[in-house]
Amino acid sequence: MDVVLDLDGLDALIGVLREGGRAVVGPVLRDDAITLAELSSATDLPSGWGVETGPGHYRVRERADAAVFGHSAGPQSWKRFLHPPRRALVSSDGEGFHSAGDDAPDYAFLGVRPCDLAAIAKLRQIVGGRAPFVVAAQCTEPGEVCFCASMGCGPAAGAGYDIALTERIDSGGHRFLATSGTEDGAAALARVPARAAAPNDITLAEQDVEAARGRMGRAMPELDLRDLLASSRDSAHWETVAERCLTCGNCTMVCPTCFCVSVEDTTDLDGNAERSQRWASCFEIDFSHLHGGAVRTSGAARYRQWMTHKLGTWHDQFGTSGCVGCGRCIAWCPAGIDITEEAAALAGGKRP
Ligand code: SF4
Ligand code: SF4
């Protein structure tokens, strides 16, 4: 059954999840960005803050209302909790080897946007790990660089949530339509103050989400992207992109599905050693190092690798696209390179 919570109800939901022993992580305003951090209550949420995005552009801005989920994707994704930037694998103290084990808490992710809900499923398909409890926030506030609708990943939350919230502020107050997706979600909702949803609550929420579909700043060309990338291997366009691409790897770091790692060994003078993994990027020159040197030495080859894998060969490996249309790689590219524009250019300049 759908119910309606107010802010106190949302706060109670955070309390219920924390009482269950979970680390509740959600959006917070920090360092002039909407980042992700552990929440102790609903007052930690970025009430009244939105964002303004564009190619190579991200700014927080004050909203005219007190929405807590009124922002599009920020620089961090849930990847940093499911697949940390650096993780010890094994250590040695001179007397033996010790496996690092898994000391991650049980997470509850609160405020997961539909694009990121899809990204969590794609990432967990690869890196595994324990399933987090997910409180999704349906998208009613798409950004200028968002294109999840054209990737089939939003603005409505797809499968994989325990609870889905739709935030609304109007003359009826500040409230959240809450829908449970699992028994755990229903059990959590049953423990918080809420009223039964009226038909109009559901209709308004559906209208708000549908309106978001038409307000996305971008769209991926409606083509078979796998075929497009497969047939673009020798395109002259890769050199054109490379004239702008700095091969910095920002796009891979912010992408919620990029999962590549390097494995490193470190030792100290006391004889202790540690093997760890850290996020790596296909834009690093050493990423393609085989005997004799790197295989992909040019920026053109590295950009082609990233985009071809993300939109094309990911289908062959994992049966799905590697892109959910969150737009982070566009906002956080210092050169403002836009994956939807590059796909359109490869397709012959056609924009959707
Ligand atoms: S490729 Fe870009 S838009 Fe697609 S999921 Fe990664 S960061 Fe988001
Ligand atoms: S596309 Fe942009 S973010 Fe990615 S490596 Fe090139 S310059 Fe950096």
TrEMBL record:
Cross-referenced InterPro entries: 4Fe4S_Fe-S-bd (IPR017896), 4Fe4S_Fe_S_CS (IPR017900)
Signal sequence annotation: none
Protein known as: 4Fe-4S dicluster domain-containing protein
Keywords for the protein's UniProt record, in alphabetical order: Iron, Iron-sulfur, Metal-binding
Residue ranges of domain 4Fe-4S ferredoxin-type in the record: 236-266, 314-342
Organism: Lentzea kristufekii
